[in-house]
Amino acid sequence: xxxxxxxxSDVIPLLAEIFxxxxxxxxxxxxxxxxxxISKGSLYHFFPGGxxxxxxxxxxxxxxxxxxxxxxxxxRDDPPAALxxxxxxxxxxxxxxxxxxxxxxxxxxxxxxxxxAAIRDYFEDWLRALTSCLTRAGASRPxxxxxxxxxxxxxxxxxxxxxxxxxxxxxxxxxxxxxxxxDTVLQQEAHATKPPxxxxxx
Amino acid sequence: xxxxxxxxSDVIPLLAEIFxxxxxxxxxxxxxxxxxxISKGSLYHFFPGGxxxxxxxxxxxxxxxxxxxxxxxxxRDDPPAALxxxxxxxxxxxxxxxxxxxxxxxxxxxxxxxxxAAIRDYFEDWLRALTSCLTRAGASRPxxxxxxxxxxxxxxxxxxxxxxxxxxxxxxxxxxxxxxxxDTVLQQEAHATKPPxxxxxx
DNA sequence: GTCTATATGGAGATAGAC
DNA sequence: GTCTATCTCCATATAGAC
Lengths: 202, 202
Hints:
2 copies of one chain form a homodimer. Chain A is mostly helical. Chain A has 10 helices and no strands. Chain A has helices spanning 8-22, 29-36, 40-46, 50-76, 79-93, 102-108, 111-114, 116-136, 141-165, 169-189. In chain A, helix 1 crosses helix 2 (29-36) and helix 9 packs antiparallel against helix 10. The first copy, chain A, is elongated. The termini of chain A are far apart. The model of chain A has no long low-confidence stretch (mean pLDDT 93). At the A-B interface, helix 6, helix 8, helix 9 and helix 10 of A face helix 6, helix 8, helix 9 and helix 10 of B. The structure holds a DNA duplex.
Protein backbone atom coordinates (compact mmCIF):
# COMPACT_ATOMS: atom_id res chain seq x y z
CA UNK A 1 0.00 0.00 0.00
CA UNK A 2 1.50 3.26 -1.14
CA UNK A 3 1.95 5.95 1.44
CA UNK A 4 1.06 9.50 0.72
CA UNK A 5 4.18 11.59 0.55
CA UNK A 6 3.77 15.17 1.58
CA UNK A 7 5.90 18.17 0.96
CA UNK A 8 6.03 20.81 3.62
CA SER A 9 4.57 23.27 1.14
CA ASP A 10 1.50 21.05 0.74
CA VAL A 11 0.98 20.85 4.48
CA ILE A 12 1.07 24.55 5.28
CA PRO A 13 -2.20 25.50 3.58
CA LEU A 14 -3.96 22.72 5.45
CA LEU A 15 -2.51 23.98 8.71
CA ALA A 16 -3.57 27.51 7.81
CA GLU A 17 -7.19 26.48 7.48
CA ILE A 18 -7.14 24.63 10.77
CA PHE A 19 -5.58 27.52 12.70
CA UNK A 20 -7.94 29.93 11.00
CA UNK A 21 -10.94 27.94 12.09
CA UNK A 22 -9.89 27.00 15.60
CA UNK A 23 -7.36 29.63 16.64
CA UNK A 24 -3.87 28.92 17.91
CA UNK A 25 -4.83 27.65 21.35
CA UNK A 26 -7.89 25.88 20.05
CA UNK A 27 -5.84 23.82 17.62
CA UNK A 28 -4.47 20.62 19.12
CA UNK A 29 -2.07 18.12 17.69
CA UNK A 30 -4.85 15.60 17.67
CA UNK A 31 -6.97 17.82 15.47
CA UNK A 32 -4.07 18.41 13.15
CA UNK A 33 -3.34 14.73 12.67
CA UNK A 34 -7.02 14.00 12.14
CA UNK A 35 -7.66 16.68 9.59
CA UNK A 36 -4.45 16.38 7.65
CA UNK A 37 -4.17 12.61 7.89
CA ILE A 38 -0.52 13.06 8.82
CA SER A 39 0.85 11.38 11.92
CA LYS A 40 2.54 13.16 14.78
CA GLY A 41 5.85 11.64 13.79
CA SER A 42 5.71 13.10 10.31
CA LEU A 43 4.54 16.45 11.54
CA TYR A 44 7.47 16.69 13.93
CA HIS A 45 9.73 15.65 11.09
CA PHE A 46 8.57 18.69 9.12
CA PHE A 47 8.23 21.03 12.07
CA PRO A 48 10.66 20.12 14.83
CA GLY A 49 9.50 23.18 16.75
CA GLY A 50 6.00 21.74 16.99
CA UNK A 51 2.87 23.83 16.96
CA UNK A 52 4.63 27.13 17.32
CA UNK A 53 6.79 26.47 14.28
CA UNK A 54 3.76 25.40 12.28
CA UNK A 55 1.94 28.61 13.08
CA UNK A 56 5.02 30.68 12.33
CA UNK A 57 5.32 29.12 8.91
CA UNK A 58 1.64 29.63 8.26
CA UNK A 59 1.98 33.31 9.11
CA UNK A 60 5.02 33.60 6.86
CA UNK A 61 3.16 32.04 3.97
CA UNK A 62 0.19 34.35 4.38
CA UNK A 63 2.50 37.33 4.54
CA UNK A 64 4.26 36.15 1.40
CA UNK A 65 0.97 35.87 -0.44
CA UNK A 66 0.00 39.42 0.46
CA UNK A 67 3.39 40.81 -0.44
CA UNK A 68 3.15 39.28 -3.87
CA UNK A 69 -0.50 39.86 -4.62
CA UNK A 70 -1.13 43.15 -2.86
CA UNK A 71 1.81 45.06 -1.36
CA UNK A 72 4.21 44.87 -4.30
CA UNK A 73 1.60 45.90 -6.86
CA UNK A 74 0.56 48.78 -4.57
CA UNK A 75 4.14 49.97 -4.28
CA ARG A 76 4.99 49.47 -7.92
CA ASP A 77 2.07 49.67 -10.31
CA ASP A 78 -0.12 52.38 -11.68
CA PRO A 79 -2.38 53.35 -8.73
CA PRO A 80 -5.81 52.66 -10.23
CA ALA A 81 -4.68 49.25 -11.46
CA ALA A 82 -2.96 48.42 -8.17
CA LEU A 83 -6.03 49.40 -6.16
CA UNK A 84 -8.24 47.34 -8.42
CA UNK A 85 -5.90 44.41 -7.90
CA UNK A 86 -6.05 44.93 -4.14
CA UNK A 87 -9.83 44.80 -4.03
CA UNK A 88 -9.92 41.69 -6.16
CA UNK A 89 -7.24 39.94 -4.11
CA UNK A 90 -8.77 40.90 -0.79
CA UNK A 91 -12.26 39.84 -1.77
CA UNK A 92 -10.93 36.57 -3.13
CA UNK A 93 -8.63 35.87 -0.22
CA UNK A 94 -11.26 36.40 2.43
CA UNK A 95 -13.80 34.58 0.28
CA UNK A 96 -16.11 37.57 0.29
CA UNK A 97 -16.29 37.50 4.07
CA UNK A 98 -16.55 33.77 4.67
CA UNK A 99 -12.95 33.51 5.75
CA UNK A 100 -11.42 35.51 8.56
CA UNK A 101 -7.97 37.04 8.78
CA UNK A 102 -5.81 34.66 10.76
CA UNK A 103 -3.31 37.38 11.51
CA UNK A 104 -5.98 39.71 12.80
CA UNK A 105 -7.37 36.93 14.97
CA UNK A 106 -3.95 36.13 16.37
CA UNK A 107 -3.55 39.81 17.23
CA UNK A 108 -6.45 39.74 19.67
CA UNK A 109 -5.30 37.37 22.39
CA UNK A 110 -2.03 36.27 23.99
CA UNK A 111 -1.07 34.63 20.70
CA UNK A 112 -0.04 38.09 19.62
CA UNK A 113 2.91 38.09 21.99
CA UNK A 114 4.19 34.87 20.50
CA UNK A 115 4.20 36.24 16.96
CA UNK A 116 4.31 39.96 17.61
CA ALA A 117 6.85 40.81 14.93
CA ALA A 118 5.13 38.88 12.15
CA ILE A 119 1.75 40.34 13.03
CA ARG A 120 3.01 43.88 13.20
CA ASP A 121 4.95 43.58 9.95
CA TYR A 122 1.97 42.23 8.05
CA PHE A 123 -0.13 45.26 8.91
CA GLU A 124 2.64 47.82 8.71
CA ASP A 125 3.65 46.62 5.27
CA TRP A 126 0.08 46.85 4.09
CA LEU A 127 -0.30 50.37 5.47
CA ARG A 128 3.01 51.46 4.00
CA ALA A 129 2.27 50.08 0.55
CA LEU A 130 -1.23 51.50 0.43
CA THR A 131 -0.08 54.88 1.68
CA SER A 132 2.55 54.98 -1.03
CA CYS A 133 0.00 54.12 -3.69
CA LEU A 134 -2.48 56.72 -2.53
CA THR A 135 0.23 59.36 -2.39
CA ARG A 136 1.21 58.59 -5.96
CA ALA A 137 -2.45 58.87 -6.87
CA GLY A 138 -2.48 62.46 -5.69
CA ALA A 139 -3.41 62.37 -2.00
CA SER A 140 -1.37 64.31 0.53
CA ARG A 141 0.82 62.24 2.82
CA PRO A 142 -1.36 62.59 5.94
CA UNK A 143 -4.53 62.03 3.98
CA UNK A 144 -3.06 58.95 2.32
CA UNK A 145 -1.97 57.52 5.64
CA UNK A 146 -5.34 58.18 7.26
CA UNK A 147 -7.14 56.61 4.35
CA UNK A 148 -4.86 53.58 4.33
CA UNK A 149 -5.52 53.05 8.01
CA UNK A 150 -9.24 53.37 7.41
CA UNK A 151 -9.09 50.72 4.69
CA UNK A 152 -6.95 48.18 6.51
CA UNK A 153 -8.86 48.49 9.74
CA UNK A 154 -12.15 48.58 7.88
CA UNK A 155 -11.42 45.21 6.33
CA UNK A 156 -10.58 43.70 9.70
CA UNK A 157 -13.68 45.13 11.29
CA UNK A 158 -15.86 43.87 8.48
CA UNK A 159 -14.49 40.36 8.94
CA UNK A 160 -15.28 40.48 12.64
CA UNK A 161 -18.80 41.78 12.14
CA UNK A 162 -19.58 39.48 9.22
CA UNK A 163 -18.62 36.47 11.29
CA UNK A 164 -20.38 37.71 14.41
CA UNK A 165 -23.61 38.22 12.50
CA UNK A 166 -22.93 35.26 10.24
CA UNK A 167 -23.73 37.55 7.35
CA UNK A 168 -21.19 38.10 4.62
CA UNK A 169 -23.16 40.91 3.02
CA UNK A 170 -21.61 43.10 5.71
CA UNK A 171 -18.22 42.41 4.21
CA UNK A 172 -19.26 43.13 0.63
CA UNK A 173 -20.91 46.40 1.65
CA UNK A 174 -17.83 47.51 3.52
CA UNK A 175 -15.50 46.83 0.60
CA UNK A 176 -17.79 48.95 -1.54
CA UNK A 177 -17.79 51.76 1.02
CA UNK A 178 -14.01 51.70 1.27
CA UNK A 179 -13.64 51.86 -2.50
CA UNK A 180 -15.95 54.85 -2.38
CA UNK A 181 -13.89 56.56 0.31
CA UNK A 182 -10.77 56.24 -1.79
CA ASP A 183 -12.52 57.53 -4.89
CA THR A 184 -13.89 60.51 -2.99
CA VAL A 185 -10.54 61.54 -1.58
CA LEU A 186 -8.71 61.10 -4.84
CA GLN A 187 -11.34 63.12 -6.68
CA GLN A 188 -11.13 65.92 -4.11
CA GLU A 189 -7.38 66.03 -4.59
CA ALA A 190 -7.87 66.30 -8.34
CA HIS A 191 -10.47 69.08 -8.06
CA ALA A 192 -8.36 71.76 -9.77
CA THR A 193 -8.44 70.04 -13.14
CA LYS A 194 -11.51 67.84 -13.09
CA PRO A 195 -15.15 68.28 -12.11
CA PRO A 196 -16.40 66.30 -9.08
CA UNK A 197 -17.54 62.85 -10.10
CA UNK A 198 -20.94 61.31 -9.72
CA UNK A 199 -20.51 58.48 -7.20
CA UNK A 200 -21.28 59.04 -3.50
CA UNK A 201 -19.77 56.61 -0.94
CA UNK A 202 -23.10 54.87 -0.53
CA UNK B 1 -7.11 33.21 59.41
CA UNK B 2 -10.09 34.84 57.72
CA UNK B 3 -11.04 33.55 54.32
CA UNK B 4 -11.91 35.89 51.56
CA UNK B 5 -15.57 35.54 50.72
CA UNK B 6 -16.46 36.20 47.14
CA UNK B 7 -19.70 36.98 45.52
CA UNK B 8 -20.27 35.74 42.02
CA SER B 9 -20.62 39.32 40.90
CA ASP B 10 -17.13 40.08 42.16
CA VAL B 11 -15.64 37.16 40.30
CA ILE B 12 -17.07 37.86 36.87
CA PRO B 13 -15.05 41.01 36.14
CA LEU B 14 -11.89 39.13 37.04
CA LEU B 15 -12.86 36.33 34.70
CA ALA B 16 -13.62 38.85 31.99
CA GLU B 17 -10.12 40.26 32.10
CA ILE B 18 -8.57 36.81 31.95
CA PHE B 19 -10.66 35.67 29.00
CA UNK B 20 -10.02 38.97 27.29
CA UNK B 21 -6.29 38.57 27.61
CA UNK B 22 -5.94 34.88 26.86
CA UNK B 23 -8.99 33.98 24.80
CA UNK B 24 -11.44 31.21 25.60
CA UNK B 25 -9.23 28.27 24.65
CA UNK B 26 -6.12 29.93 26.03
CA UNK B 27 -7.67 30.31 29.47
CA UNK B 28 -7.18 27.30 31.71
CA UNK B 29 -8.58 26.55 35.11
CA UNK B 30 -5.08 26.75 36.48
CA UNK B 31 -4.69 30.29 35.23
CA UNK B 32 -8.05 31.23 36.66
CA UNK B 33 -7.27 29.91 40.13
CA UNK B 34 -3.86 31.61 40.07
CA UNK B 35 -5.08 35.01 38.98
CA UNK B 36 -8.25 35.14 41.02
CA UNK B 37 -6.85 33.40 44.06
CA ILE B 38 -10.00 31.27 44.13
CA SER B 39 -9.70 27.51 44.31
CA LYS B 40 -11.20 25.11 41.81
CA GLY B 41 -13.70 23.95 44.38
CA SER B 42 -15.06 27.44 44.90
CA LEU B 43 -15.14 28.17 41.21
CA TYR B 44 -17.21 25.06 40.54
CA HIS B 45 -19.44 26.05 43.38
CA PHE B 46 -20.21 29.32 41.60
CA PHE B 47 -20.15 27.93 38.08
CA PRO B 48 -21.19 24.27 38.02
CA GLY B 49 -21.00 24.36 34.25
CA GLY B 50 -17.27 25.07 34.43
CA UNK B 51 -15.43 27.24 31.95
CA UNK B 52 -18.27 27.47 29.49
CA UNK B 53 -20.64 28.79 32.13
CA UNK B 54 -18.04 31.30 33.27
CA UNK B 55 -17.59 32.65 29.76
CA UNK B 56 -21.34 32.76 29.20
CA UNK B 57 -21.81 34.86 32.33
CA UNK B 58 -18.96 37.12 31.32
CA UNK B 59 -20.59 37.69 27.94
CA UNK B 60 -23.91 38.40 29.62
CA UNK B 61 -22.33 40.95 31.91
CA UNK B 62 -20.61 42.73 29.05
CA UNK B 63 -23.86 42.81 27.12
CA UNK B 64 -25.66 44.18 30.12
CA UNK B 65 -23.12 46.95 30.47
CA UNK B 66 -23.52 47.99 26.85
CA UNK B 67 -27.30 47.87 27.03
CA UNK B 68 -27.29 50.19 29.99
CA UNK B 69 -24.51 52.56 28.98
CA UNK B 70 -24.90 52.64 25.23
CA UNK B 71 -27.90 50.93 23.62
CA UNK B 72 -30.64 52.25 25.88
CA UNK B 73 -29.41 55.86 25.69
CA UNK B 74 -29.17 55.53 21.90
CA UNK B 75 -32.71 54.25 21.65
CA ARG B 76 -34.16 56.70 24.15
CA ASP B 77 -32.27 59.96 24.49
CA ASP B 78 -31.81 63.06 22.44
CA PRO B 79 -29.53 61.93 19.56
CA PRO B 80 -26.61 64.33 20.04
CA ALA B 81 -26.47 63.55 23.76
CA ALA B 82 -26.82 59.81 23.19
CA LEU B 83 -24.06 59.82 20.58
CA UNK B 84 -21.81 61.79 22.88
CA UNK B 85 -22.52 59.27 25.60
CA UNK B 86 -21.68 56.43 23.21
CA UNK B 87 -18.28 57.86 22.33
CA UNK B 88 -17.43 58.45 25.95
CA UNK B 89 -18.55 54.99 27.00
CA UNK B 90 -16.79 53.25 24.13
CA UNK B 91 -13.53 55.10 24.63
CA UNK B 92 -13.66 54.41 28.34
CA UNK B 93 -14.68 50.79 28.01
CA UNK B 94 -11.94 49.91 25.56
CA UNK B 95 -9.48 52.03 27.52
CA UNK B 96 -8.71 54.14 24.48
CA UNK B 97 -7.61 51.07 22.55
CA UNK B 98 -5.68 49.24 25.26
CA UNK B 99 -8.44 46.76 25.81
CA UNK B 100 -9.92 44.58 23.09
CA UNK B 101 -13.52 43.55 22.59
CA UNK B 102 -13.93 40.11 24.07
CA UNK B 103 -17.07 39.50 22.06
CA UNK B 104 -15.38 40.46 18.81
CA UNK B 105 -12.46 38.18 19.65
CA UNK B 106 -14.78 35.28 20.43
CA UNK B 107 -16.43 35.83 17.06
CA UNK B 108 -13.28 35.02 15.16
CA UNK B 109 -12.63 31.39 16.01
CA UNK B 110 -14.61 28.29 16.90
CA UNK B 111 -15.59 29.94 20.17
CA UNK B 112 -18.21 31.74 18.13
CA UNK B 113 -20.21 28.56 17.65
CA UNK B 114 -20.34 28.00 21.39
CA UNK B 115 -21.80 31.44 22.07
CA UNK B 116 -23.29 32.31 18.69
CA ALA B 117 -26.53 33.78 20.01
CA ALA B 118 -24.90 36.03 22.60
CA ILE B 119 -22.33 37.28 20.09
CA ARG B 120 -24.89 38.00 17.43
CA ASP B 121 -27.25 39.74 19.81
CA TYR B 122 -24.54 42.02 21.15
CA PHE B 123 -23.76 43.36 17.69
CA GLU B 124 -27.30 43.37 16.38
CA ASP B 125 -28.53 45.31 19.39
CA TRP B 126 -25.80 47.85 18.91
CA LEU B 127 -26.59 48.24 15.22
CA ARG B 128 -30.30 48.51 15.90
CA ALA B 129 -29.93 51.10 18.62
CA LEU B 130 -27.50 53.22 16.65
CA THR B 131 -29.62 53.03 13.51
CA SER B 132 -32.62 54.20 15.49
CA CYS B 133 -30.68 57.11 16.93
CA LEU B 134 -29.31 58.21 13.57
CA THR B 135 -32.75 57.98 12.01
CA ARG B 136 -34.17 60.19 14.72
CA ALA B 137 -31.31 62.59 14.07
CA GLY B 138 -32.50 63.01 10.51
CA ALA B 139 -30.73 60.35 8.46
CA SER B 140 -32.68 58.19 6.05
CA ARG B 141 -33.17 54.57 7.11
CA PRO B 142 -30.65 53.06 4.68
CA UNK B 143 -28.12 55.77 5.38
CA UNK B 144 -28.54 55.32 9.11
CA UNK B 145 -28.08 51.57 8.86
CA UNK B 146 -25.01 51.92 6.66
CA UNK B 147 -23.49 54.45 8.99
CA UNK B 148 -24.24 52.32 12.05
CA UNK B 149 -22.52 49.38 10.42
CA UNK B 150 -19.55 51.53 9.57
CA UNK B 151 -19.25 52.70 13.16
CA UNK B 152 -19.62 49.32 14.84
CA UNK B 153 -17.28 47.56 12.46
CA UNK B 154 -14.89 50.50 12.53
CA UNK B 155 -14.51 50.17 16.28
CA UNK B 156 -13.79 46.46 15.99
CA UNK B 157 -11.28 47.00 13.24
CA UNK B 158 -9.55 49.75 15.17
CA UNK B 159 -9.16 47.44 18.16
CA UNK B 160 -7.61 44.75 15.97
CA UNK B 161 -5.19 47.14 14.30
CA UNK B 162 -4.28 48.97 17.48
CA UNK B 163 -3.33 45.70 19.12
CA UNK B 164 -1.55 44.34 16.08
CA UNK B 165 0.59 47.47 15.85
CA UNK B 166 0.66 47.90 19.61
CA UNK B 167 -0.29 51.49 19.00
CA UNK B 168 -3.41 52.88 20.58
CA UNK B 169 -3.27 56.12 18.61
CA UNK B 170 -4.87 54.11 15.81
CA UNK B 171 -7.93 53.68 17.99
CA UNK B 172 -8.18 57.33 18.96
CA UNK B 173 -7.86 58.45 15.35
CA UNK B 174 -10.55 56.05 14.25
CA UNK B 175 -13.03 57.22 16.88
CA UNK B 176 -12.43 60.75 15.66
CA UNK B 177 -12.97 59.72 12.04
CA UNK B 178 -16.21 57.93 12.90
CA UNK B 179 -17.52 60.92 14.80
CA UNK B 180 -16.71 62.95 11.71
CA UNK B 181 -18.57 60.54 9.45
CA UNK B 182 -21.67 60.84 11.55
CA ASP B 183 -21.45 64.62 11.65
CA THR B 184 -21.03 64.79 7.91
CA VAL B 185 -24.04 62.65 7.15
CA LEU B 186 -26.27 64.40 9.65
CA GLN B 187 -25.27 67.79 8.27
CA GLN B 188 -26.01 66.70 4.73
CA GLU B 189 -29.43 65.56 5.84
CA ALA B 190 -30.06 68.90 7.52
CA HIS B 191 -28.89 70.97 4.54
CA ALA B 192 -32.29 72.49 3.81
CA THR B 193 -32.60 74.41 7.07
CA LYS B 194 -29.10 74.87 8.42
CA PRO B 195 -25.78 76.04 7.01
CA PRO B 196 -22.96 73.47 6.87
CA UNK B 197 -20.96 73.36 10.09
CA UNK B 198 -17.30 73.96 10.61
CA UNK B 199 -15.76 70.59 11.46
CA UNK B 200 -14.28 68.36 8.71
CA UNK B 201 -13.86 64.63 9.38
CA UNK B 202 -10.09 64.93 9.70
C1' DG C 1 -18.76 28.16 51.00
C1' DT C 2 -14.08 27.18 51.24
C1' DC C 3 -10.36 24.26 50.47
C1' DT C 4 -7.08 19.95 49.12
C1' DA C 5 -6.72 15.60 47.01
C1' DT C 6 -7.56 13.02 43.30
C1' DA C 7 -9.57 10.93 38.92
C1' DT C 8 -9.27 10.73 34.04
C1' DG C 9 -8.50 12.29 29.68
C1' DG C 10 -5.94 14.82 26.26
C1' DA C 11 -2.26 18.04 25.59
C1' DG C 12 2.53 18.56 23.42
C1' DA C 13 6.52 16.03 22.60
C1' DT C 14 9.87 11.98 21.84
C1' DA C 15 11.78 7.28 20.70
C1' DG C 16 12.48 4.15 17.81
C1' DA C 17 10.55 0.38 14.60
C1' DC C 18 9.86 -0.04 9.71
C1' DG D 1 10.18 9.84 5.73
C1' DT D 2 6.54 7.36 7.68
C1' DC D 3 4.30 5.34 11.45
C1' DT D 4 2.93 3.52 16.49
C1' DA D 5 3.93 3.40 21.25
C1' DT D 6 4.92 5.87 24.99
C1' DC D 7 6.28 9.76 28.19
C1' DT D 8 5.12 13.57 31.03
C1' DC D 9 2.39 17.21 32.17
C1' DC D 10 -1.56 19.79 32.58
C1' DA D 11 -6.37 20.10 31.21
C1' DT D 12 -11.25 19.81 33.14
C1' DA D 13 -13.88 17.91 36.54
C1' DT D 14 -15.27 15.66 41.06
C1' DA D 15 -15.24 14.11 45.99
C1' DG D 16 -15.28 15.07 50.21
C1' DA D 17 -12.83 17.16 54.49
C1' DC D 18 -13.28 21.33 57.15
